[in-house]
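User: Hey, quick favor. My workstation is busy. Could you predict this chain's structure for me?
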Amino acid sequence: MNLVSPHCVGDYFILQVDQNSGDSITNLKLQKLCYYAQAWSYALREKPLFVDKIKAWAHGPVIPSLYQRFKPYRWNAIDPSDLRSDPYEDLHKEDLLLLSSVWDRYGMLSGKQLEWLTHSEAPWKMAYGDRKPGSACNEEIKPEAMLAFYKGQLASTH
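Assistant: No problem, here it is.
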């Protein structure tokens, strides 16, 4: 199984942003896009895209190593030159196709909209539990939960 780095996945999404039109991407939005890439990899391919665990933090799913990389940006736009990889060189064609469809489905949403969306879905809700909104949480969003939920989403659309 050829797993990729979540940093390479993040770099892919950073490159999708149309800066010439004034678009940007925040760490909040990037985290959710990478989460959806992993979730849909489970649903469509029944395997992970990357090995890192995804945590159910107060503002939604987070890959801690990727969060730490972009933490200095806080809620501001990520500098598009802050790349560690060339996703078009480093990712397999099937990975690029998956990421492209995730971008097509979720890329137009803001970080806050993606946060609300993940908060409404079972994988994050199960991991976050009955904590009060905004409370600290470091529980893993289980791969089995992502697989079951998003596979169910596929079934309901067909």
